[in-house]
């Protein structure tokens, strides 16, 4: 039995990056031997075990063959006869197909270290094309390592085009696709993820609505990527980044939300930004009734953070269009001031007058409208 550290832990150590998770690979062992040493089996697809003390996962070396459509259409085979090289050749990229033995010696049968030094994302073998999820994974790695100068190898990009043309991307589940999208959006340069998907024709398969923006005469696609890049530069959370990515899709936002089963927070903000961002960009021009409608739509009295997230997304869009000068975003400050004016209305005084139900609601609306009219006149 030989135990190796494999995959991302080896790659990131060689890059000088922090290593968070470690994947362990066991060569030359049986299920029975693992259990005899106290490892607990988990998972049904292929043998993975939990270390009795550290709690880390250890997988038996395996081979696999394509048996159906999609990323799940594989049959796995694990046995003591499977070699390290046989296991590594089924991995996606050469930089992920390296291993270290217990003495720290590098095992690199597919020249991942060379590609690491050349800053190249290259597939290990033709088997890469059997798993459509790898198209998204490579695009995500491109986004992660773009700050280090990594690019996708031309022959790998061609394989990704072949996968896109095959229709295999349609076999991906919403959950698996979203997991890759979510992780990619949280990278330092998430716009590279979209650029790579476009380059291999995957974007038109996964998000044709977004792909169509790049054919628009007003360069809406490039503005969208610039907004997404600004969101990353400003450390915005996932739901703000998703709203920046989808804000120009109009009526298609709902369909894209549902296609990938985006989390509720992402879906809600995306719809609000898509519908209302025009109001935000010209906030000082809005009259009191429009301001009141906007604040009520955001439920600003009970969910103030949602307005802040909306303002953040609209600011990133404005910065992506280079429509801002300096560090401030006066439209956002104006909306915050309007929200403060509306929330300053004393509900208790209306209740003390004996108002309830619909009468209270109408009186409260009138008072808030008066407060906003005074605010617009003063500002």
TrEMBL record:
Note: A single active site specifically recognizes both ATP and CTP and is responsible for their addition.
Enzyme Commission designation: 2.7.7.72, 3.1.3.-, 3.1.4.-
Keyword Phosphoprotein (UniProt): no
Lineage: superkingdom: Bacteria
Family: Belongs to the tRNA nucleotidyltransferase/poly(A) polymerase family. Bacterial CCA-adding enzyme type 1 subfamily.
PANTHER family (alphabetical): MULTIFUNCTIONAL CCA PROTEIN
UniProt: CTP binding residues: 8, 11, 91, 137, 140
Full protein name: Multifunctional CCA protein
A Pfam family assignment: PolyA_pol_RNAbd
Listed CDD domains: NT_ClassII-CCAase (cd05398)
Ligand binding (ATP): 8, 11, 91, 137, 140
Organism: Pseudomonas reidholzensis
């Amino acid at each position: 039995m030989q135990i190796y550290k494999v995959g991302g832990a080896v790659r990131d150590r060689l890059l000088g990056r922090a290593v968070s998770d470690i994947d362990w690979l066991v060569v030359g062992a049986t299920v029975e031997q693992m259990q005899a040493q106290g490892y607990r089996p988990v998972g049904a697809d292929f043998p993975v075990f939990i270390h009795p003390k550290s709690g880390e996962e250890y997988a038996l070396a395996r081979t696999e063959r394509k048996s159906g459509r999609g990323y799940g259409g594989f049959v796995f085979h694990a046995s003591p006869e499977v070699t390290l090289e046989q296991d590594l050749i089924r991995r996606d990229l050469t930089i992920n197909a390296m291993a270290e033995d217990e003495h720290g010696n590098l095992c690199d049968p597919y020249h991942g270290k060379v590609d690491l030094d050349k800053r190249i994302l290259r597939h290990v073998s033709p088997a890469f094309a059997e798993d459509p999820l790898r198209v998204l994974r490579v695009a995500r790695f491109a986004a992660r390592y773009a700050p280090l100068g990594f690019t996708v190898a031309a022959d790998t990009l061609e394989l990704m085009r072949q996968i896109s043309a095959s229709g295999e991307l349609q076999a991906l589940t919403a959950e698996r696709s979203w997991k890759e999208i979510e992780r990619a959006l949280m990278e330092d340069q998430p716009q590279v993820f979209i650029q790579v998907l476009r380059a291999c024709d995957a974007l038109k398969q996964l998000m044709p609505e977004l792909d169509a923006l790049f054919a628009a005469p007003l360069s809406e696609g490039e503005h969208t990527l610039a907004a997404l890049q600004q969101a990353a530069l400003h450390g915005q959370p996932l739901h703000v980044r998703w709203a920046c990515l989808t804000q120009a899709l109009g009526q298609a936002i709902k369909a894209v939300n549902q296609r990938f089963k985006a989390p509720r927070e992402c879906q809600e903000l995306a719809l609000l930004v898509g519908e209302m961002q025009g109001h935000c960009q010209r906030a000082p021009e809005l009259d009191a009734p429009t301001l009141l409608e906007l604040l009520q739509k955001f439920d600003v009295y009970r969910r103030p953070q949602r307005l802040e997230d909306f303002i953040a997304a609209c600011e990133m869009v404005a910065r992506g269009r280079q429509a801002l000068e300096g560090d401030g975003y006066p439209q956002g400050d104006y909306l915050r001031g309007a929200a403060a004016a509306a929330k300053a209305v004393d509900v208790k005084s209306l209740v003390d007058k004996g108002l309830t139900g619909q009468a209270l609601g109408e009186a409260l609306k009138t008072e808030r409208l008066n407060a906003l009219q005074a605010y617009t006149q003063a500002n």
